[in-house]
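Journal club side-thread
Mid-discussion, someone asked how the predicted structure for our own chain would compare to the paper's figures. Pasting it here so we can look after the session.
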Amino acid sequence: MSVLAPCPCSGILDAARPRTERSLVGRLDPRTRVVLAVLFALTVVTVASLSALVLALAAAVTLAVLARLAPRQTLRRMLALEGFMLVVLALLPFTVPGRILAEPLGFAVSAEGLRQAAVIGLRANAVAVALMALVGSLEVVALGRALSRLGAPERLVHLFLFTIRYLEVLEREYRRLRLAMRARAFRPTCGPHCWRSIGYLFGMLMVRSLERAERIDAAMRCRGFTGRFPLLDDDEPQRPGALDWGFGAVSCLALALVAGLGA
């Protein structure tokens, strides 16, 4: 397979990606979106005031509206996040010491635990929604180019792009190995043989991934790859426009307000 061939999962990714090109957020420079996402995350994780976090969540929802994210897909992703955090948030009111509000079934519920659970929940949801609006709706190649132009290490950018490019390839390899195991009458059970077989499965997947990576590296070197992806507009890099400066100024004011409320 040529490394310059289109990604096998590009059609699936394009179908699942929100159509944000004509939205206000979609017209921003990718570098502006990455910088704003980082600033938003850093600001939100440093504040602990409930009013500031509510304002941050409202700002994140506004970004999602401006980015025209698909409501159903966004809610599905948020439910996955909530399901991951539900156990932790549910245990905090019972494990954090403080002023007792109630004792259902003999378990003390503290006010400090409830507040800490609310802070973590608001913080995680605000950051997740903002990242989906600013970065999640970016094309993978555009995100990699933005990271490169912002000064990210070239090797990190290459690793990111190749990981996204070959995730589907690794998934197909995993499915082939799983099919071979099922053809040999393997059934998942709770026992030493099952865990040993699963270990062999992932070990073989890593070995084949390494072999494929070596073949890809040799093919790229044969095509003159020198460790850097040239861009068509390297000589004349685009500069942020008036929309980027205006949107960035408004966003910075909103983040300053959030930080001021959280101080």
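Post-session note: Confidence is low (pLDDT under 50) at residues 1-18.
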